[in-house]
Amino acid sequence: MRYDVFGHSAGAQMIHRYLLFQPECHFNRLVSSAAGRYCVPDPSIEFPYGLGVSSAATEPPNNYFGREVYVICGANDTDLNAPSLRHTPGADALGLQRARYFFTESSSIASDGGYLFNWEYRTVPNVGHNGEEMAAYAANLL
């Protein structure tokens, strides 16, 4: 049995990591909305910002790149000083484009490895870091 899953902010951090670290999970479709930080599926980047020195570093990426994944972010989610946003050199290096960076890097890794990439990136117009509004958008995707 498979199921759809949506996570916003900290929930998005949890679900996209679960997909990467448990690639045999039963997710059907996944919507990751405005995570404060991402784990790029790159073994050369140290965990928690990449898979380096983790059990997932040796997992076949086709198990997660082939899944139906939506990475979404509100167009007005632009406050780099938001108190809920993690501030470390690794997180701040991505700036306000964290979601786009995660998606773009993941797409490049999949392309370089010749893996099917079934993820989409979407910007939600006129929405900031608002879980209810992002959930309404995600519901239409699911």
What's the mean pLDDT score?
Answer: 88
Low-confidence stretches: none
State the distance separating the first and last CA atoms. 16 Å
Strand content: 15-25%
| Structural class by helix and strand composition | alpha/beta
Question: What order do the SSEs take from the amino end to the carboxyl end, as H and E?
Answer: EHEHEHHEH
Strand order of the largest sheet: 1-2-3-4
Which word captures the global form? globular
Helical percentage = 25-40%
Largest sheet: 4 strands, parallel
Tell me the number of helical segments per DSSP (H or I, 4 or more residues long): 5
What value does the Rg take, in angstroms?
14 Å
Number of strands: 4
Describe this structure in words.
The protein is of the alpha/beta class. It has helices spanning 10-21, 62-65, 89-92, 98-113, 131-141; strands at residues 3-8, 27-33, 68-74, 119-124. It has five helices and four strands. The longest helix is centred in the last third of the chain and has 16 residues, at 98-113. It starts with a strand and ends with a helix. The relative contact order is 0.21.
